[in-house]
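Retry 2 of 3 after timeout on previous attempt. Resubmitting structure tokens to design endpoint.
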């Protein structure tokens, strides 16, 4: 089976247009949208591993350290993501607790595990289940578009503040790590080249 790389055709990552590289060059510009064209991302595996490992390192303090500190006239309380989920659940806001748990804990962990699986399969040259692995990458990419950090953090803080009157809130030390996890996982997803999944099938 003739591949696009063998035919000298490159797909635009922005608009999807198939273009033939000028004089067989591996890169150029898309004639439709002007985006840069490349047959393969340079050092895709190394960059993706570096970003994924950095996100995994930040994931630990993001869930251990307090993400918000609330103060009243009588007391002060610091909550991590998980303790905040417990507070939301026990107060009767279980749908909000479920959203925060899924979006802030399960999705980042799932994305990291899926990226690690894709990277290992590429490095091992696995040719089995290429379509399924490509669908997995597309799912990760789709979920990443909904990683709206500000929406969930604001919802989390507002839900805690409205439990008691005269309450003030301050961001905790875990918030920068949580933001880093979201940003790094999104960058790791975009730096991974899914075309590498198909290279082993045609070797």
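Retry 2 succeeded. Sequence:
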């Amino acid at each position: 089976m003739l591949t696009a790389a063998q035919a000298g055709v490159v797909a635009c990552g922005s608009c999807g247009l198939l273009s033939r590289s000028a004089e067989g060059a591996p890169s150029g510009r898309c004639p439709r949208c002007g985006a840069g064209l490349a047959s393969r991302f340079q050092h895709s595996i190394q960059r993706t591993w570096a970003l994924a490992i950095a996100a995994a390192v930040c994931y630990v303090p993001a869930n251990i350290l307090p993400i918000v500190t609330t103060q009243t006239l009588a007391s002060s309380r610091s909550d991590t993501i998980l303790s905040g989920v417990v507070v939301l659940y026990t107060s009767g806001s279980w749908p909000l607790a479920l959203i925060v748990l899924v979006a802030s804990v399960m999705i980042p962990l799932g994305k990291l595990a899926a990226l690690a699986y894709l990277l290992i399969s590429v490095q091992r040259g696995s040719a089995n289940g290429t379509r399924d692995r490509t669908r997995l990458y597309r799912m990760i990419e789709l979920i990443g578009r909904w990683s709206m950090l500000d929406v969930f953090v604001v919802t989390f803080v507002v839900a805690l503040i409205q439990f008691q009157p005269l309450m003030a809130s301050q961001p905790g030390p875990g918030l920068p790590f949580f933001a880093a996890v979201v940003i790094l996982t999104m960058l790791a997803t975009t730096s991974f080249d899914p075309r590498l999944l198909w290279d082993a099938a045609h070797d």
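Attempt log closed. The two ends are 11 Å apart (CA to CA).
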